[in-house]
Write a structure and sequence with these properties.
The structure holds 2 protein chains of 2 kinds.
Chain A lengths: L13 E5 L19 H14 L6 E5 L14 E4 L5 H11 L4 E7 H7 L1 H10 L4 E6 L2 E2 L5 E2 L18 H4 L5 H6 L4 E8 L3 H19 L4 E7 L3 H4 L6 H7 L1 H4 L3 E5 H6 L1
Parallel strand pairs in A: 2-3, 2-4, 4-5, 5-9, 8-9
Antiparallel strand pairs in A: 6-7, 8-10
Helix pairs in contact in A: 1-7, 2-4, 3-4
Chain B lengths: L2 E9 L9 H5 L5 E3 L11 E3 L8 H5 L5 E12 L1 H6 L1
Antiparallel strand pairs in B: 1-4, 2-3
The chains are: A alpha/beta, B alpha+beta.
Chain lengths: ~260, ~80
């Protein structure tokens, strides 16, 4: 099979339909593992911020995890805060600067294991913030340990025989908990395992930011991301493994949209 | 075999980490992994004729190595094109 030259743009008349990176990312370089889903999720968020014209008026509140390395390369104002405390920091920022789009970026270890109280209290207060949860079921940053949202049977660094409900308990499904509280405006779960779900997730993130700017309440967009290193699977098998394990406990789609309820 | 190429890519092969997510994401299946490694030793995707410019590879790539171009006029190759000439 012949190979097409791909080292420089084509000479025949053509349009560029997709760039390497979103405009709000300063460089393509990052040190995350092969097959990681987090850079894809972060690209979606940055693209939505640009689409909505919020590039000059948004602040990201970053939790602790691998995604924290993007604080150096994202061209948005950022605050790195204590483990799990992103919604609390975002509350303060949003109350002082209500016109600014405030969004938090947290992993499942950060949100459900270390900072469960913060996200639930922020929801209970009905804060107008957008929380992005990158859910991969492991503490990827520290080497792939079990989190509160690891699914039953999931093999992690400290549950090598698989998570056992009798010993380790059941996973916390944070999306459903937040959706059940009256302070939340929009709760949805997307994933980045293929191109179609990436497009769907972009729409969910967009709605999440729109509900914040409409002052409807807290919006939570949970994104299932691959962590092949933390799951001990080959990088190419991460997407399939994710939908076979996490995908069954965390079904994709909108869980709650206050705008749809108000219209009905 | 008649082949229509509607788009093409620029692949920054040296930044690729060889996760192969683009290989399965490509609808026309025109991406294959290279036989030799890039500057850091990872295998990287190579493009065969038949790209549709759908941007699926660019969307799934965690390492931002793809840039997608769509031709104004599709490039037709293969037996049909040869017959026409």
């Amino acid at each position: 099979m012949s190979i097409v030259m791909t080292t420089r743009p084509p000479e025949a008349p053509s349009n560029k339909v997709a760039s390497f990176k979103p405009t709000l990312l300063q460089t393509e370089e990052h040190h995350l593992c092969p097959g990681c889903g987090e850079p894809v999720a972060i690209r979606l968020v940055l693209e939505v911020i640009e689409e909505l014209g919020l590039a000059q008026k948004n602040v990201s509140i970053i939790g602790h995890g691998c995604y924290g390395s993007f604080i150096m390369t994202m061209d948005v104002d950022s605050t790195l805060c204590l483990h799990g405390r992103a919604p609390a920091v975002a509350t303060g920022l949003k109350r002082m600067r209500p016109e600014v789009a405030v969004w938090t970026l947290q992993g499942d270890g950060d949100m459900t294991s270390e900072g469960l109280a913060e996200i639930l209290h922020a929801t209970a207060r009905g804060e107008n913030i957008t929380c992005i949860l990158l859910n991969n079921g492991v503490f990827g940053d520290t080497g792939g340990q079990m989190t509160a949202s690891s699914v039953i049977g999931q093999r992690t660094k400290n549950t090598l025989e698989g998570r056992d409900a009798a010993y380790h308990g059941y996973p916390i499904v944070i999306g459903d908990m937040v959706a059940a509280m009256p302070g939340s405006a929009f709760v949805a779960r997307g994933s980045v395992h293929n191109a179609a779900s990436i497009a769907a997730t972009r729409r969910l993130i967009r709605k999440g930011f729109q509900r914040q700017m409409e002052k409807k309440g807290l919006s939570l967009v949970e994104i299932l991301t691959m962590c092949p290193t933390g799951w001990f699977v080959p990088a190419s098998g991460g997407a399939d493994y994710m939908m076979e394990s996490l995908g069954k406990t965390y079904p994709l789609g909108e869980i709650k949209d206050i705008a749809a309820t108000e219209q009905a | 075999m008649r082949q229509v190429t509607r788009g093409t890519l620029v692949i920054d092969a040296d930044r690729c980490k060889g996760c192969e997510l683009c290989i399965v994401a490509c609808p026309p299946r025109v991406l294959t992994m290279s036989r030799t490694g890039n500057a850091t030793g990872y295998l990287y995707p190579e493009l065969a004729p038949g790209c549709t410019g759908c941007t699926a590879c660019q969307q799934v790539c965690p390492d931002f190595v793809f840039e997608v171009y769509k031709y104004h006029e599709p490039i037709v190759s293969g037996s049909d094109a040869e017959r026409m000439q």
